[in-house]
């Protein structure tokens, strides 16, 4: 069979069978990421255009991340109480307004405060997106759906990162306004095309009980799930070094920013090229083995950076941990859904999202301390150790996770077809 024919069949099998609502949600994600300019040029805007110090730029970035940590839990609670659709509308509309405002404020305190609000608003939608995706996609298709969504995120990021540089040369304010407009377009798309996906049974249960059957305390007391959150934090801590530890280490080793850009670009290119074929390979494989292998690949992929003396070798190490990222992201998200009760998906997804937000806060501090005190080689060795610990943890944890099985069909909201649900959590 010709290669082109096989490729077309592979793509068709990858995208077939998913509900129409998923593709509207997927389109919203892609548009949102295509307009994600601000995160790319925020540091340059503050230091070059506004003339602030690098320390102040770092403070603003930390406040943005802190807002994301707080809203991870808040967005999860909103997704369970208000519903997925209202949460998405509120989060995306708030993001659009706050991003536009950020382009006009000039006072340093006001900039920091609005950046905090942007972080809160932009991160609040993530638990709702993941919960809605779990609601509308059949259990056997979820790994594929999460992979396609992750592919859209990275495709949008790759395009927006390239476009951000050209937009910044013309006008930084234009970048803020374009992102605000595209985010508002996502909110309009959600309003027009996406029905509420929160299962009707969960809605009736919540209405019948003033104290929701699943609270944040319930999530925190779920030892098995919180173990997943802890392991997710360790893996995220390793992956964050691609954007925080690697550029610092390469700079100290004498590499130029352009050389770092070439090395890290391999990450985005591989995800866009390999996410779909790798998904076809892992879709029905043992998640325990996938999580163990991906954790080890992440840890030792970064660990090998200690022996890299050229941009080419560094790019090869990027290939190793990028493959781990491609496997880990959809598999781990699917595990979170398996462990989440139907009526508490928002809170569970919010807690999982928070693990990545906290890692984004801790990673810069950790990498800077280790590099300054002990040297970059110790940082890469620590990545290998953390990856090994995470791999062992997944190996032990997954032995206690029951097999996924279909349960009773839940009555859906209007416009969303019924799906068999997982009886775990």
Automatic annotation (TrEMBL):
<feature type="transmembrane region" description="Helical">
    <location>
        <begin position="290"/>
        <end position="323"/>
    </location>
</feature>
<dbReference type="InterPro" id="IPR036259">
    <property type="entry name" value="MFS_trans_sf"/>
</dbReference>
<protein>
    <submittedName>
        <fullName>MFS transporter</fullName>
    </submittedName>
</protein>
<dbReference type="InterPro" id="IPR050171">
    <property type="entry name" value="MFS_Transporters"/>
</dbReference>
<feature type="transmembrane region" description="Helical">
    <location>
        <begin position="54"/>
        <end position="75"/>
    </location>
</feature>
<feature type="transmembrane region" description="Helical">
    <location>
        <begin position="378"/>
        <end position="397"/>
    </location>
</feature>
<feature type="transmembrane region" description="Helical">
    <location>
        <begin position="351"/>
        <end position="371"/>
    </location>
</feature>
<keyword id="KW-1133">Transmembrane helix</keyword>
<feature type="transmembrane region" description="Helical">
    <location>
        <begin position="225"/>
        <end position="248"/>
    </location>
</feature>
<dbReference type="InterPro" id="IPR020846">
    <property type="entry name" value="MFS_dom"/>
</dbReference>
<dbReference type="InterPro" id="IPR005829">
    <property type="entry name" value="Sugar_transporter_CS"/>
</dbReference>
<dbReference type="InterPro" id="IPR011701">
    <property type="entry name" value="MFS"/>
</dbReference>
<keyword id="KW-1003">Cell membrane</keyword>
<feature type="transmembrane region" description="Helical">
    <location>
        <begin position="260"/>
        <end position="278"/>
    </location>
</feature>
<dbReference type="Pfam" id="PF07690">
    <property type="entry name" value="MFS_1"/>
</dbReference>
<keyword id="KW-0812">Transmembrane</keyword>
<feature type="domain" description="Major facilitator superfamily (MFS) profile">
    <location>
        <begin position="21"/>
        <end position="405"/>
    </location>
</feature>
<feature type="transmembrane region" description="Helical">
    <location>
        <begin position="111"/>
        <end position="129"/>
    </location>
</feature>
<feature type="transmembrane region" description="Helical">
    <location>
        <begin position="150"/>
        <end position="168"/>
    </location>
</feature>
<keyword id="KW-0813">Transport</keyword>
<feature type="transmembrane region" description="Helical">
    <location>
        <begin position="87"/>
        <end position="105"/>
    </location>
</feature>
<keyword id="KW-0472">Membrane</keyword>
<feature type="transmembrane region" description="Helical">
    <location>
        <begin position="21"/>
        <end position="48"/>
    </location>
</feature>
<feature type="transmembrane region" description="Helical">
    <location>
        <begin position="174"/>
        <end position="194"/>
    </location>
</feature>
């Amino acid at each position: 069979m010709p290669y082109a024919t096989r490729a077309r069949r592979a793509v068709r099998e990858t995208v077939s069978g998913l509900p129409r609502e998923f593709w509207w949600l997927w389109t919203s994600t892609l548009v949102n990421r295509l307009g994600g300019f601000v995160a790319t040029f925020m540091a340059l805007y503050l230091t070059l255009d506004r003339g602030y110090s690098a320390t102040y730029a770092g403070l603003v970035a930390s406040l943005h991340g802190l807002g994301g940590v707080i809203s991870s839990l808040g967005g999860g609670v909103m997704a369970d109480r208000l519903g997925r659709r209202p949460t998405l509308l509120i989060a995306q509309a708030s993001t659009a307004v706050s991003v536009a405002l950020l382009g006009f404020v000039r006072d340093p305190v006001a900039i920091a405060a609005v950046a905090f609000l942007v972080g809160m608003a932009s991160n609040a939608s993530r638990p709702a997106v993941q919960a809605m995706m779990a609601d509308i996609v059949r259990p056997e298709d979820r790994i594929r759906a999460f992979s396609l969504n992750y592919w859209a995120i990275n495709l949008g990021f790759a395009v927006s990162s390239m476009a951000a540089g050209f937009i910044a040369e013309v006008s930084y304010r234009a970048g803020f306004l374009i992102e605000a407009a595209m985010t508002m377009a996502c909110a309009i798309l959600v309003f027009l095309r996406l029905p509420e996906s929160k299962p009707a049974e969960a809605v009736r249960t919540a209405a019948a009980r003033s104290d929701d059957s699943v609270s944040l305390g319930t999530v925190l007391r779920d030892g098995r799930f919180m173990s997943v959150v802890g392991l997710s934090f360790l893996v995220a801590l390793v992956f964050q070094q691609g954007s925080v530890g690697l550029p610092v280490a390469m700079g100290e080793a004498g590499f130029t920013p352009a050389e770092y850009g070439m090395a890290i670009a391999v990450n985005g290119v591989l995800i866009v090229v390999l996410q779909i074929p790798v998904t076809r390979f892992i879709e029905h494989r043992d998640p325990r083995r996938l999580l163990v292998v991906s954790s080890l690949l992440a840890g030792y992929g970064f660990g090998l950076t200690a022996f890299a003396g050229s941009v080419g070798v560094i790019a090869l190490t990027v290939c190793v941990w990028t493959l781990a990222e491609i496997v880990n992201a959809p598999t781990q998200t699917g595990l979170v859904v398996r462990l989440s009760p139907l009526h508490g998906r928002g809170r569970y997804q919010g807690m999982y999202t928070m693990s990545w937000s906290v890692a984004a806060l801790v990673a810069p501090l950790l990498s800077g301390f280790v590099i300054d005190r002990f040297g970059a080689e110790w940082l890469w060795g620590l990545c290998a150790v953390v990856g090994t610990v995470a791999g062992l943890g997944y190996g032990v944890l997954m032995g206690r996770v029951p097999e996924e099985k279909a349960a009773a069909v839940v009555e859906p909201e209007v416009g969303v077809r019924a799906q068999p649900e997982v009886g775990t959590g």
